[in-house]
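step=predict obj=F-box domain-containing protein n=405
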Amino acid sequence: MEVSKKNAGDFQKCHDDLIPGLPSELALECLVRVPYQFQSAMKSVCRSWRSLLSDSSFIRERHRCGKTELLLCLVQPLTPPISASKSVGETFMVDVKKSEDESQPRVFCTPRFGLSVYNSALSTWHRIAFPEKQQIPLFCECVVLQDAGKILLIGGWDPETLQPTRDVYVLEFAGRKWKRGAPMKESRSFFACASVGSTKVYVAGGHDDQKNALRSAEVYDVEKDEWSTVPPMTEGRDECQGFAIGTDLRFCVLSGYGTESQGRFRADGEIYDPATNSWSKIENIWRFPDTSPRGRTVGDFRSSSKLWCFTDTDLQSELRWETKDDSRNWKLELETIQLPMTGSSVFAGSLGGESVVMIGGKRESEGDGGVMMKMTTEKKMGQWSHVHIPSDFSTLPFSHASIYV
């Protein structure tokens, strides 16, 4: 496939020859075909290559040529050490306390979270380094803005105080550099979050530092690096799930619970329409009052208004249902999918055109690090395949996003 001469020319204006002796467009065609795993080393070759590979337009050019690789990014607890000690490096922070009437010390562990990456093309796993002397917020939301080539980690708990935070961390994937984004207007954790369109991220609900369920919502503009408030939802919703739905850039908040009914999940949801700057409620869409939609529900990429809920033996209901919001303008359909095996815990996510489910508390053989299943969603709908997880990456994630690089 021919590489864009305009892009090659633009790069040529800013850099020396990418490959001496080759026309700029041919040199660029060679470089976009190098697998992602080697790009970090390529930046050490020369300034021109470093500048080129650190530009988000390089990812877009790889995508245009059909050479991108799909990465699944997971915010997950780092695996605990085999034995607890006072200092255990990047895995856990450990405090050892001993009371007067205890003969043995009690060990209290605060987990550290990491950003793990699964490369679906190469079936490899690695972890992205966070800035030195900083820690990823516990239970933060991970979201991707593909066109900008950025991953955002939003909110969650401060690792030191264990209080909800407003913090936003931005990873520019091409340059592999972290920076601080503008903080949210309100501290929150366990909230709904989704990228909507190419430049916006919406957040809504969750809870504050007093465990009060929040109605508030806001939107982040990645180009301006600023947050704006949007009208609040009609209900406070803690532990809710967020989705982008439709082609007109709507944001859906599914279920959640109120302050006085913790753990009892609502059957309804709300849809925000930026065209009218208002919310509408959609009734009877979540029919599992004892189960959180988080880690159970993903969007169907073939349909702009369909969700899948992955069920096990504890969740039995009708297979499919649909409802409309109270304005009768929007329809949302939810379909239940039976998991191929059971476990003590489940996390479901999406990877391009496939659904991915990690199942905890289940081992296929001694020493197996964990179980991850992929379900195809196109021609072989419903067929599952197994993906091996190394033991260092086997803990269930809290949030996820996928990005083409």
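step=describe
The CA atoms of residues 70 and 404 lie 5 Å apart.
step=end
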